[in-house]
């Protein structure tokens, strides 16, 4: 039983809360907004900034106390489900759009429309597309926008120079699933074996590689979502996750564009241009491997950008994603939010905290930390300035969104079930236990999930 399946089974065991709680009561009675609440994060890099937000919030609200707890992302939602079953869940959580429908449909989240009204929140002030991610099929809002993110290429400038390349040479690379285009040509040239032979030179030893042209991130969602792994390739063929987003009911994992993308992506490991899935899953994460000099390029999210600039002896830069067969670049635009659990014993204070997290007072503090891009537009611009002041030009991420080179993260019912099917299916392909065509069988299993919707 994998993590997604365990999550589903555990969530099914959580008692369904009353729908009136799901729709979210509690209006904004400040008199009851006191006591202690617990708030969960999964990114330790953001904890300092949010601790400052908590300190400021407590100073402005006499008798209020916010306890922040941090859990790693890979186990976050499983840990949350365990806490819900055990009756010791937090009050407020950092939430992911792919997971909130499951929580909302089982009555685990409070609606926040009353907070929007009482606080006069105008979603036109937030990154376009992000606020809409957090409205359920029932029309109830279950999250207030926290941040936004997208994906770009991060490069080791020293390795580029050694290969006779420049940052400018990465600006307009093209990709296709037949031969990989100039994107694969570049990855091959940046790959170096233990004898100093490059991937596009005769005698390259694909079994003994010192520097891979492209890194590989192993994490949950690699088969269904692939945000930082393969989404930029599949989506730039014109492929879509489902018939609509959000709440699609006809997924497209059987399409040739998807299967051909996975097949090409896997071929990079055979050629020695990208590490094997087994190596990427060995316990050394993509950032540490990059920092150790093992990768020349990685595709990663804006939330990790600063991490790549902290390695001694490595000068990093950020470049656009490759252009696909559609003639466009396409990266995922995602955004987290903060949600209140229906099990909270202090919903008034919890809602007040969530409103504060969505305000400029807190999001400006987050912006100054230069770790992520806040969802509030004014705070997002301050984050760009803070990154620049820290020596990081993150314009590529902003430019991609401004140019419309993004698509929203997939949101659907049964998403945990989709993960439980597609993740092991793609893993089997990547470790050569199955062929890419086998993904059609997994796709048929996904279709069954929505047969009665």
UniProtKB/TrEMBL annotation:
<dbReference type="GO" id="GO:0030313">
    <property type="term" value="C:cell envelope"/>
</dbReference>
<comment type="similarity">
    <text>Belongs to the bacterial solute-binding protein 1 family.</text>
</comment>
<dbReference type="Pfam" id="PF13416">
    <property type="entry name" value="SBP_bac_8"/>
</dbReference>
<keyword id="KW-0732">Signal</keyword>
<keyword id="KW-0762">Sugar transport</keyword>
<keyword id="KW-0813">Transport</keyword>
<feature type="signal peptide">
    <location>
        <begin position="1"/>
        <end position="23"/>
    </location>
</feature>
<dbReference type="InterPro" id="IPR006059">
    <property type="entry name" value="SBP"/>
</dbReference>
<protein>
    <submittedName>
        <fullName>Multiple sugar transport system substrate-binding protein</fullName>
    </submittedName>
</protein>
<dbReference type="InterPro" id="IPR050490">
    <property type="entry name" value="Bact_solute-bd_prot1"/>
</dbReference>
């Amino acid at each position: 039983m994998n993590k997604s399946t365990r999550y589903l089974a555990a969530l099914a065991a959580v008692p369904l809360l009353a729908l009136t709680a799901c729709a979210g009561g509690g209006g904004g009675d400040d008199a009851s907004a006191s006591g202690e609440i617990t708030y969960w994060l999964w990114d330790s890099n953001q904890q300092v900034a949010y601790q400052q937000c908590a300190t400021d919030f407590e100073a402005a609200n006499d008798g209020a106390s916010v306890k922040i707890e941090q859990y790693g992302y890979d186990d976050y939602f499983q840990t949350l489900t365990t806490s819900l079953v055990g009756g010791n869940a937090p009050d407020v959580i950092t939430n992911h759009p792919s997971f909130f429908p499951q929580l909302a449909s089982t009555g685990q989240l409070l609606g926040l429309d009353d907070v929007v009204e009482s606080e006069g929140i105008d979603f036109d002030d937030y990154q376009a597309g992000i606020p809409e991610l957090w409205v359920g099929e029932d029309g109830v809002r279950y999250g207030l926008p926290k941040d936004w993110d997208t994906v770009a290429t991060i490069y080791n400038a020293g390795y580029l120079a050694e290969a006779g390349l420049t940052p400018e040479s990465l600006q307009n690379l093209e990709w296709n699933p037949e031969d990989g285009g100039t994107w694969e040509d570049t990855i091959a040239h940046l790959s170096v074996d233990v004898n100093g032979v490059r991937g596009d030179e005769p005698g390259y030893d694909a079994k003994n590689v010192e520097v891979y042209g492209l890194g590989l991130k192993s994490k949950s969602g690699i088969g269904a979502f692939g945000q930082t792994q393969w989404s930029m390739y599949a989506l730039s063929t014109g492929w879509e996750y489902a018939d609509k987003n959000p709440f699609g009911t006809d997924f497209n994992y059987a399409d040739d564009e998807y299967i051909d993308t996975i097949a090409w992506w896997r071929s990079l490991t055979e050629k020695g241009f990208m590490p094997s899935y087994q190596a990427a899953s060995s316990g050394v994460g993509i950032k540490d491997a990059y920092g150790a000099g093992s990768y020349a390029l990685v595709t990663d999210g804006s939330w990790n950008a600063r991490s790549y600039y902290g390695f001694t002896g490595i000068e990093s830069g950020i470049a656009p994603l490759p252009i696909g067969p559609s003639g466009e670049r396409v990266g995922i635009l995602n955004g987290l939010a903060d949600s209140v659990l229906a099990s909270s014993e202090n919903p008034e204070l919890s809602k007040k905290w969530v409103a504060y997290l969505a305000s400029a007072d807190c999001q400006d503090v987050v912006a100054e930390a230069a770790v992520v891009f806040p969802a509030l537009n004014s705070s997002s611009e301050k984050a760009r300035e803070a990154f620049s002041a820290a020596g990081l030009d993150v314009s590529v991420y902003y430019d991609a969104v401004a140019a419309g080179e993004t698509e929203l993260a997939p949101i659907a019912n049964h998403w945990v079930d989709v993960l439980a099917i597609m993740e092991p299916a793609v893993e089997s392909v990547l470790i050569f236990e199955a062929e890419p065509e086998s993904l059609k069988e997994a796709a048929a299993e996904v279709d069954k999930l929505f047969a009665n919707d």
